Amino acid sequence: MNCNYALKWVIGGALVTSSFASYADVVFNGFASLRATAADSDGGTSPFETLEGDGDISFSDESLFALQARADLGGGLSATVQLLAEGKGDFDAEARWAYVSYEINPQHTISMGRFANPSFYQSEYQNVGYTHNFGRLPKAVYIGFDFTTIEGVSLDSNFIFGDYALSTKVLYGSWRGTTFLAATQQDESFGFKDELSVRLELSKDWWTVYGGFFIVEIEGGTVDTNAILGGAQGAIELAKSQGATEQQVQAFRDAVVWDGKNGLYGYTGFHIDYDRVILDVEYADYGVEDSSDGFNQVWYTAIGYRVVDDVIVTVHHERFLQDNKDLDFLNGVDQPTLRATGVAIRNNLAMREFDGVGLSVRYDFHPNAALKFQYVSGEDSRPSVGDYSIWTAGVDLVF
Q: What domains, with CATH codes, occur in the chain?
């Protein structure tokens, strides 16, 4: 289990308090997903790195178990730990969340430690399959970024205005980890520094609208050294042989790297649950400013129908696009070979786009469990993938 000193303190504190019932009430709950999944593509490569992609059925790719303990220490103070074990990680448990909270008053709660990073609307509960009607949340938005957790401090607030309910979250923190890049076909390290995040959710009766954003300073890591500069070294040497100066080479490096640049992430959408009809729309736009990273525009739309009280059928469309047209980041690069290399890096990083159409069926056969089936087919712009299909069947439950 990889935990820094602060997280070990939180976990240790929660476990200790669970041994002394006179000092704290400890509540355990959890969730699980047990799924059979098969993915296939014309090109032979899986459309998503978390799936095998060879057409064979896997019972581990999307199965998981989680156990959460919350110790109420009294006086508004509590400690929470969530252990998550995923099939794709051989069910090795890790501390997904580990934080301490203090309820200032019924409206405001402050937390510190490791917790969900609200990158998108359902980021906090995206692993809890029981909370949504899809067999799997649309990958165009919920593609599986590692930075769905973050270490920092947050303030959660709730307000009531007549028939309207408003919830907000303000967060400050940092994160270091990896992300999968189609350009290198492997995980590359990078980090977030000084993240400032804000989210809002307004609801009334049968509708909810929401939005959020965060801004961070990027630490480039191996994204810069491997995916960007590593592949450009030959072009840099060629440009030098053509008379490029050190100033021109440095201008190129400064233009294409992510390190020290601002990462911008924003999302918005709405949810409607009226009579038997359920409608969901979510849109997100994110990328690294003034760098070789093209901004991503992603979204999904879904319409569901409650056939009977226990059965919901949902059809959705999703799309993942990357902008490789905006070349303003190369305005300071005037050497032809270096500028052409910068364009090639942008195109390489933005080589992946995909869309998909899916059908999901949910049957609540138990108050705490849902049987689900989903079939998704789509097209991926990478030649190694092409047309793809994924089907999933399984059970999502909470306890």
A: 5-398 (2.40.160.10)
